[in-house]
Amino acid sequence: MAADYDVPAIRRTHDILRVLAGRPAPVKAAELARACQMPKSTLYLLLDCLEQRRWVERLDGGYIVGLELMALGAAYLRHDGLQTAFHQAAGAFVARCNEVVQLAALDGFEVVYLAREDARRPVRLVSDLGLRLPAHACALGKALLASLPPDDLAARLPEALPRITDRTIADAAHLHRELDDVRRHGLAHDREEVTTGLVCFAAFVGVTPLGKRVAVSTSIPTDRLDDAHRQAATEGIRRVARDIALRVIPGA
Fold first, then answer.
1. What are 163-202's pLDDT values in tens digits?
2. How far apart are CA 142 and CA 202, in angstroms?
3. Does pTM top 0.70 for this prediction?
4. pLDDT confidence of 124, banded at 50, 70, 90?
């Protein structure tokens, strides 16, 4: 019974914040009311309360996610030492390979990007912190899905697998074959399945004491991915996963 209990004010607040988090620019109140299907009177009361607590801020006639909410969200990584462990291991990888490293967690059938260590050169990325991607489409997601027990995986798998690029896996049988390969080799691949011209390699880290199922990846443009660099990157990302696990996963 408790699992079905609903507090309307919390649900509506959640809807507002999800809309703001998904938009690249300030969202006007009228647009928020439409997107959240909420009466304007209710919306303005909630926005005023959220603004007082700096969960949202006003900018250019609209609203954005506020500084206080960002600070509260950052605690998600601090609680089990994941943030420190990630940046130590990822920093060593960047020093060796000069490629970006990303950390993500599995939420349902989506990957949520938690942290990123940037390389010393530009790269075409879509991995803004907090971004969500369908797990079947990216290397991080495949590494995380492959770690699930069969029943858990089956329960999360949607009826349809949406395409992001023309290379995205959209067939469940194909996905299962790829996940079998990830389990055999301990490495997941994304071959331009999220971003054209970008290849990703990912490795599963483990489940933290607080229950976060996490993985790490690196993303490399195809025009600089020769055999030597591919080997260094794949070996390196496995090492990053192992280093993080040793710091935060009991018994790793």
1. 999 999 999 999 999 999 999 999 999 999 998 889 999 9
2. 8
3. yes
4. low
